[in-house]
Amino acid sequence: MISLIESEKIKRNKRIYDAKDEALIQEGGYVSPISTLWDDILVGIVLKKPVLLKGPSGSGKTRLSQSISHFFNQPMHSVNCSVDLDAESLLGFKTIISKNGETHIEFVEGPVIEAMKKGHILYIDEINMAKPETLPILHSVLDHRRMMTNPFTGEVIHAHDDFTVIAAINEGYIGTSPMNEALKNRFLSYSIPYLSGEQLKELMEKLFPNAEQSLVQTMLNISADLQKQVMNGLLDEEAASIRSILDALSLSEHMPILRAVQYAIAEKLDDPIERSLVMELCETWVK
Fold this sequence. Notes:
The chain is an alpha/beta fold. It has two domains: 4-191, 3-Layer(aba) Sandwich (Rossmann fold); 197-285. 41% of the residues lie in helices and 16% in strands. It has 13 helices and nine strands. The protein has helices at residues 4-13, 19-22, 37-46, 61-71, 87-91, 111-118, 139-142, 181-184, 197-207, 213-231, 242-252, 257-264, 272-285, and strands spanning 51-54, 76-80, 92-99, 102-109, 121-125, 147-149, 156-158, 164-169, 188-191. Helix 9 (197-207) crosses helix 10 and helix 12 (257-264) runs antiparallel to helix 13 (272-285). The longest helix is centred in the last third of the chain and has 19 residues, at 213-231. The model has no long low-confidence stretch (mean pLDDT 90).
C-alpha cells in the first residue's frame, strides 16, 4: 500500500512548472538527526499544515526546507525577515509602467501571493525577527481558510492546493521577539537539533569524499566537544553550528586545522573568552 507521503510526492511531481519556476527548485541533502523527524515533518506538509522549524543557527533548518522542495519537485520562495519587513515585501507593490504610449499602474506580486497562486513553497526565515504588527496579515493564509484579500488591489486570493508554508525560528537570539500566540498556534512546531555522531560523519563524508578519515574524525571530536560546552552554558550556540563545522572541514583540506577552526568558528564569537575556549578545545584534538 502506497504511503500518504509517497502518494503526495507522486501527485506533486506530476505538476508541470515553467522554465522560470524550475530555477526555484532547491537541492536536497538534509540528514535528519532523529530517525522519525523527516517523515513526521512531511506528514504535516502533506496535511497542508504550516510547519515551524525551531533550532539554533546552523542546525540545518534552511537545508531541510530545501530538501522538502527537492523531494516534492516544488519551487520555493524565500522571505528573510527583519525589522524592516513590511506588507509590500510579503505581498508585492504597485508600480507605474508605460505601454503603447500610455501610463498604467501595475501590481508586482510578492513571494506570498506568487507562492499561493502557483502552489509553491513559501519559506519564511527567522520569522521572529519581523515586527509583531507585520505578520497578522498572514493569519488567514496560515489557518484553515488558506486565503487572503490583497490590501493593495482588493483581489481575493485562494491558495493553490499544493501551497505550503515553512517558517524557521532561532529562539532567544538578539533582535528576535517571541511569536504571539495567535501566530504560533497556526503552525505545527518541530525542534531541529544539531547533527552528531555517525549522522554527522555520514554528512561530512558525503560532502567531502576526498577528506582523510583522520581529519573527519578530528572534526567530529571537536564538534562533540563544542556541543558539550554549549549544553554546559560555556559557549554560545553559534559555536556548535554544523554549518561552521563543515566550513572548518572544508578549510582544513587546504590549511592547518587550528587556523581553519579559528576562521570558521572562533572568530564569529563576540566574547574573547569563548573564542579562547574554542581554540583550547581544538588544540586538545590536534596532534
